[in-house]
Amino acid sequence: MSKALVQQFVAREGLSQYLLDGRVLAMLAAAGFSMKAIFVKLSYAAYPVDPITLLALRMVLALPLFLLLAWRERGAGPLGRQDIWLLLLIGFLGYYLSSLTDFIGLFYISAGLERLILFTYPTLVLLFGAVLLKQPIPAKAWPPMLVCYIGIFAAVGHDLQQRADGHTVLIGAAWVFASAVSYALYYLGVGKLAKRIGSTRMAGWAGAASSGMVLAHFAAVGDFTVLPKLPGIIWGYSAAMAVFSTVLPIALLAAAIRRLGAGVAAGYATLGPVLTIVFAWLLLGESFTWMQALGLGLVMGGVSWLARSK
Fold first, then answer.
1. Which residue among 71, 186, 232, 246 is least crowded, i.e. fewest CB within 10 A of its CB?
2. Which residues form the EamA domain (predicted)?
3. CA-CA distance, 296 to 229, in Å (whole number)?
4. CA distance readout (Å), 234 to 42, 212, 283
5. CA–CA dist 297, 294 (Å, integer)
6. pTM of the entire structure?
7. Between the CA of residue 27 and those of 42, 159, 258, what are the distances in Å?
8. Residues 134-156: pLDDT tens digits?
9. For residue range 239-262, what is the model confidence (pLDDT) as tens digits?
């Protein structure tokens, strides 16, 4: 089918307008982010690769795409010195440290539990805002926060029941919670900077900076000659992770925010835990029990309740 015929078909069916709808973009972004844990777990199952090596491979492949995002916004004017320092801080917290602790945690726990723990970051944003920025937490926000953490305890209990080595579940959960802490700190500083320099531009430069940090870390503890020797399936999973679970959903989410606004677009993130658990069940063979369903419902319900209570 020629390019002209494809364009005629898209125009006739109205698909271009549909695919550019902010709601569709936000849902695709949520689906992309939710697949990250699946690609990581598939990689661990396919070959004995360690977390920092897998993360380095992901960032090697994502770096050109991050630079492309930044280059597309080259007409937005020069960055100030303060902006550059903030980009480095955001890259460290949101893309380097959060990703590193998350990859380590996924070495120990299921993809479903990982996603639920990460999804508690809005509660941490409120807590850190109160401690660091002196922003009081509304009284009505405490009940939904409590519901979230009851859900996490239920989800951890599910994994403890499924595993004979329960201590590794606790270790992995602690690492992923550290990732949520790092992401919450990143989230506190990202809003004003995104408004000032643009969300796509910020994502491009912060992602590029974090790629450099990951590669510097790998150079200190690893061996770059190992990367070409990794089997093709690991390169394939890493490439899919770099494109479909890193750069593409970031760009899709930025486009959705432009169309819907940050608040509405963020609401579609609630699809993430559900999609991760479904993908983990279908692709990884992870079990789905009533306790995990309870944890999922409590965490999602608590976060949604928290969003309405602000």
1. 232
2. 24-154, 171-306
3. 39
4. 9, 21, 16
5. 5
6. 0.86
7. 23, 28, 14
8. 888 888 889 988 998 999 988 88
9. 999 999 988 887 787 777 677 765
